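Field reference: sequence -> structure
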Amino acid sequence: DSDSGWGGHTSGTAKISDPSITTKNLYTSEGDVYRYIPEAYDVSNSGLAVCVDNNVNWTSGSGVYEGTISYNAGVWSSDLNDFVFSTSLLDLDVESPWYSQVAFAPDGMTGYIVVLGNDGTTWSVTGNPNIYPIIFKTTDGGATWSDPTPIQIDGPDGIGGLVYNMLSDEDIANLYEPPVPAREEIPYTFTGDMDIVVTANGDLHIAGLVGVAGEAEDGISFYVTNGFGRIIDMFSKDGGTTWEIETMGQVATYDYTWGADAISEGNRTQITTNPAGNMIFVSWLDTDIEDAEDNDSPNIWCRGFDPVTYLKTDNGSGEDAATNVTIFSEAVWSAYFAIAPKTCFEFEAGTYTIPYVYMDWDINDELAPVQYKYIQDFQFDASNFTIQGINDPVEVKTLSSVSQNFPNPFNNETYVTVTLNEGTDVSLEVYTLTGQKVVAKDYGYKTNGSHTLTINGADLTAGVYFYTVTA
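Structure field:
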């Protein structure tokens, strides 16, 4: 009602041995803090309970972002036998945040809040708006937080594991009409799907679905189906100064919506670590049935990653691919809204058991009861980590060779063959003996392999010339 404000959070505790012993606390919207269902939640090993939400004013009936993120910290009180929460607001100047997550390292001191959004400071292509991670960092258990820092994911200064390694030459040729752009000119975006953990070293790992950003007049568009989307682990080993990306898998389908209530099933990327906080497991949902267009029959997929050795798990058959967790289980093609934990079990050293919970329901009957089911026996061990990751991409010499022009001498046209180790833009310039540039031609993007370039010399006077090929 008007006296209690709009919206709220409820917190409380329950005693496992006696469920009748409970507490309940309601925190309503008040002042410039608007509370709704929190987007993110974590409990650190030190006992700090935190939830994070985008501060959105819904009093008018539609959401208006207030330019801040609400950080709610719960500290345990032994006198009250309950958590006592306090709220602070963190400034974030974006048009509208898409998604938020929070996580702490096992020591409870280093923590991150990650928000997907666009603050207008990073590279993008006109007409191809994108969203990317913006991070807040604490090193004192959440007492103070850094200013928001955006992460440059694409463009000439983007992360190599994404910019140069995500798409093959064939992907690019299928996605773009000629002339295809150079790799560093392809715009990428997160799709609003993201989860985070912080390792024992205090390293942030961000798992999410990344695709090529499309043109859009309003909102964000992206290409992720037909093999253009990748589930990635983006991480930093130096506190957020530099970033790396490892591809965990690619998706066949993206989303599906059921019924009049528009219940939507996305890929729901989630990330899990082991109790020691030094191994990474990324999970997601995807429908891989041949010719499927929507994610309406999802399986759970998972990939393990060791950020020290850069070894990833194979798919059980030794191939460089994710493992289908549910393929031979009761949950096959029906693991709706599956949830992975922040921390897996390690009952034996080096054996990682990842429990999943999924919804078992009839998607054609909105009134049918929903049951939650538990997958309790999925695990990886050291023998599954057989695929070597890329670490930082190794720079290769793009231009392998340039031939002597032929014929030589010539009258009107002569030809030069270039061999490329990878796809790139190619241009050629012709100079006189005194260094005057008399021809400049851009041949656009060329795939890896050999290409013959034509030099038109019809307007050149007789003499000796030099040519330079740039890739």
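Note: The longest strand covers residues 64-77.
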